[in-house]
Amino acid sequence: MSQSSETSPAVRELRLVVTAADYEQALHFYRDVLGLPERAAFASPDGRVTILEAGRATLEIADPGHADFIDEVEVGRRVAGHLRVAFQVDDSAATTAELAAAGAEVIAEPVRTPWNSLNSRLEAPGALQLTLFTELGGGDGGEIGEGGAVGDPATE
Fold first, then answer.
1. Which pLDDT belongs to residue 143?
2. pLDDT confidence of residue 141
């Protein structure tokens, strides 16, 4: 569906829903350690849900070849499934260490990417594979963003 510049977008928010067997561990990890602010929390007779703010959201679509390339750059081999969550943080090295201390498995320590960011890869609570990335700057607006889009202002 195409939108003209005169109409508002049909989508107002991207919400990724994670079902975590250990709800308390996942909530602590994402809210208290990673620092995602709590927007709301709800309970039902059978369980709980907490909605956390994660800044600006984007949806990155990659074909298998480019997903292979990203994994090769960040980890050195193909490791991600069809879904990976990327968080832009101020200091990916420090945040990687903090999340590892809170129970995440470090798959790959931070590495400088061809798109001029410092990226690490972790396996986090809720069975999510995370990329943490810190933009290093210095580009002319045509660099490759986190997922490799050339000149996309949303990834710069």
1. 38
2. 38
Q: Which residues, other chains included, contact 143 with Cβ-Cβ below 8 Å and sequence gap of 6+?
A: 115, 116, 150, 151, 156
- With a cut of 50, list the residues of the chain below it in pLDDT: 139-156
Burial of 82 (0-12, 13-18, 19+ CB in 10 A): exposed
pTM of the model: 0.80
Contact in structure between 122 and 129 (CB atoms under 8 Å): yes
CATH 3.90.220.20 assigned to domain 23-150? The reply is: no
Q: What count of other Cβ atoms lies within 10 Å of the Cβ of residue 134? A: 19
Give the tokens for residue 133. 């990335």
Domain spans of the chain, in order of start: 23-150
Tell me how far apart the alpha carbons of residues 3 and 6 are, in angstroms, rounded to a whole number. Answer: 8
Nearest to 134 by CA among 100, 90, 77: 90
Output the pLDDT for position 18: 94
- Tell me if residue 6 falls in helix, strand or coil: coil
Q: Which residue's structure tokens are 């039902």? A: 44
pLDDT at 3 (0 to 100): 52
